[in-house]
UniProtKB/TrEMBL annotation:
InterPro entries named in the record: DUF7553 (IPR055975)
Name of the molecule in the record: Uncharacterized protein
Taxonomy of the source species: Archaea, Methanobacteriati, Methanobacteriota, Stenosarchaea group, Halobacteria
Cross-referenced Pfam families: DUF7553
Residue span of region Disordered: 1-25
Annotated Polar residues bias: 1-10
Top-level taxon of the source organism: Archaea
Biased composition range(s): Basic and acidic residues: 11-25
Species annotation: Halolamina salina
Amino acid sequence: MTRDQLQTASDELRAAAERATDPELQERLAEQADQFDQLATADRGPDQGRLARHLNALSDIRESLDGDAVAHVDDAEEAITAYRETVGGV
């Protein structure tokens, strides 16, 4: 089962990584993209806590980005938030 919103987040983060100019930020974004790719097809979806940790990490990364990369991170966060609304918990 594919969780479309998490796959969208992965795709957007990969696009952000391609547009980032700092190699460290490129790597961090690519790692986040890989994690969301795995979460999109895992047997069980992530819980609220895991999603919150990812959103916090993306917020930290965004502070060091500019241009198109920021827009892709924003789009990824929107997809994650939309998925998060379907998850029970907090």
